[in-house]
Amino acid sequence: MTQTKPTRPRGKGRLFPEYTIPPEELAKREAEKNARSQRYREIFAQVSPQLINEHYNWFIVIEPNSGDYFVDIDEEIAVQKARQKYPTGMVGIMRLNETGTCGKI
C-alpha cells in the first residue's frame, strides 16, 4: 500500500499584502518614468547631430535634470564619469547612432 503525501491548500493573495503599492502610486511612478524618458530623448535629439560624426556608435550617458551628458566608447567608463558628478542621479544610456539604441532585439 502506497502512502500519499498530504498536500496543503494554496493560499490566496500576495505573500505580504501590507507591502502592496497602491494604483495611484504606480501611476505616479509610471508618469515620472515617461517624463524622464522623454527628457532623455529631447537631449539626445539636440546633441546627437554634433557628436555622431566624430563619435559614431559611442555611448552617451545623459543626466536629464541638468542636461549634462558624458560620451565614451566604453559604456562602463561613461557611466563612471556620470556617477562622479551625479552619484545619486538617474541617468539614461543611449548610443550615438541614428536610432540611439544599443543593440537589436
Report the β-strand fraction as a percent range: 5-15%
End-to-end C-alpha gap: 55 Å
Tally of helical segments: 2
Rg (C-alpha, Å): 22 Å
Overall mean confidence score, pLDDT: 85
Shape: elongated
The strand order across the widest sheet is: 2-1-3
Category from helices, strands and their pairing = alpha+beta
Instruction: Outline the low-pLDDT stretches.
Output: none
List keywords for this structure.
three-stranded antiparallel β-sheet; 105 residues; alpha+beta
Folded structure, characterized:
This protein has 105 residues and is an alpha+beta fold. Helices cover 38% and strands 11% of the residues. The chain has two helices and three strands; from the N terminus they run H-E-E-H-E. It has helices at residues 23-51, 75-85; strands at 59-62, 69-72, 92-95. The protein has a three-stranded antiparallel β-sheet with strand order 2-1-3. A hairpin with a 6-residue loop joins strand 1 (59-62) and strand 2 (69-72). The radius of gyration is 22 Å and the shape is elongated.
Topology (SSEs and partners):
Layout: H1 23-51, E1 59-62, E2 69-72, H2 75-85, E3 92-95
In summary, what is this structure?
The protein is an alpha+beta fold and 105 residues long. Helix content is 38%, strand content 11%.
